[in-house]
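ok so i was messing around last nite and threw this chain in just to see what happens. nothing serious, just curious
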Amino acid sequence: MKSSVENLSPTRVKLAVEVPFDELKSSLDEAYKAIGSQVRVPGFRPGKVPARIIDQRIGRAAVLEEAINKALPKAYSDAVRETGVKALGQPEIEVTELEDNQRLAFTAEVDVRPEITVAGYDQLAVTVDDAAVTDEEVAEQFEELRARFGTLKGVDREVRTGDFVSLDLTATVDGAEVEGGSAQGLSYEVGSGNLIDGLDDAIVGKSAGESATFSSTLAFGEHAGSDAEITALVNSVKERELPEADDDFAQLASEFDTVEELRADLRSRLDRVKVLGQGAEARDKVLELLVAQTEVPLPESAVQAEVEWREHDVVHQLGHDDAAFEQYLQTQGKTREEFTAELREVAEKAVKTQFILDSIADAEAVSVSEAELTEYIVRQAQRYNMAPQEFADQIVQAGNIAALMADVRRNKALAAVLESASVTDASGNPVDLSALATPQGQAELEDLEDAAEQAAADNGGVGAAGTSGTAGTEGSAGSAGSAGSAGSEDAEGSEGAAGTEGSEDESRV
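result:
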C-alpha cells in the first residue's frame, strides 16, 4: 500500500491511498461469502455458492463494491498509521480508481490535531486570593451548624425574616387562575428568596390567617414570562430556636468534647477549603494565560462535537424535557441562539485548552501508567456513585478508554505546569500547591467543585458541561457511558461506529 498526505489547512489533510489488488483478497473472499449466504441458487446450499456463479448471477461489480466497503476501514487505518496523521473524527472518503485485479485508489479528507508550540509554559506567574480565615467566617460556619440542629417553634406574632411559614399560594393571569399555579401547605423560609420574586416583601408583617396579594413574573409553566397576580395566605408562623453554643452542643454536633475544639476544627476545615480554592484559582489562571498566549487553529468538527456533547449534557440534566429546557433558557434570560453561541464559545475554549495540554504533554513526554489510570477510574467511579469495576466496564464498552487516558495525561501535564509556575497570594506570599498534586488533594478539589456545581444546579443552573462550566480537564470524561472531553489517537487503531478505523473518538476531540 502507498499513501501520501496533502495539507489542506492547519487542521485538515487529504490522504491519497493506493492499495494493490492482492491486498484486497481477504476482503474479496469475505464479500463472496457474505453475498453467497444471501442468494438462493438451485443446487447449492446457502453459503456454498461458488464465486463464478455469484459473478454470473449477481455481477462482479456488486462483489467488488462489497469488498471495497469491507476493505476501506482497515486501509484508511493503515494509511493513518503509516503517515503519522493525528486524525480527528470521521473522514470523508472517495474512491478515485478501481481496476479489477489491478488496484484500489481512494482519498480521505479528515480533520487533524493542529501542530502547535506552547512557549513559556514552564515560566508562568499568577496571583491568587489570600487564604487567611477570619473570625467572622468561623462564626458564620458555627452559626450555620447551630441552625442545622435548631428546632422550629410556633409563634403568635407577625412574620419576620428568618421565620418558617406554611403558605397557600394561588396565581392568576388576566383574572384566570393558572393551571398548576396553586399550592397548599407550602413550607417556606422567609428571606431565602428561592420561591417567587416579591413574596418576602409581601408576607413580612402578616400574621397567621392573613393573606397578601402582589404582582410577580412567572418563571415556569405555560405562562412563563407573564405578569401574574399572586395571593399568599399565611397558615402558620414558626421561628427557629438554636441550641446553646456550649460544650453540650459540641458533643451533639461533632466528635469534639468542647466548643473550643469544634471552633478550631471549623477553622481548620475552612483553611483547607481556602487552600483548595487557591489551587483551583491558580489552575484556572494558568490555563487562561496559556489560552491567551497560544495561537491554536481549531478544527470545526472538534468544536462542533464539543458543542453537541455539552448541549446533550444540559438536556440530559433537564430530563430531556423540551419544556424544562425552554424554562431554563427563560430563567437564564437567553434565547436558544444566545445559548448556542455561548455554548460554542465555551466549547472553543475547552478544545483549545485540550490541544495546548496535549502539546505540553508531548513536550514533557508524559505517559500514563496502568496504576495511574486505575486510580483515576476509582476516583471517577466515586464521583458517579458507581463501583469501580462497573464504571470501568462501561468505559470499555463505550470505547472511551483512550479518552480517559487522554484526560489523565492532560491532568499530569497541567500538574507539571503548576509545579513550575510562580504562584503568590494577594499579599505577596508564595503559595505551596504541592498538596494538591497528591491523589487526596485532587479528590478533595473535585469534591469541592462538585459541591459548587450542585449548588449552581440547585439554583437553576447546569453542571460543568453547560455554558457555566470551565474549560478545565479533570472530570471531563463525563459519565461512564459517554464520550470523554477528548479522545486520543489510538496507536493500534480502533474501529468506530461508522466502520473507519484509526481515527480519534468519533464524537469528541
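not much to say yet. The mean pLDDT is 84.
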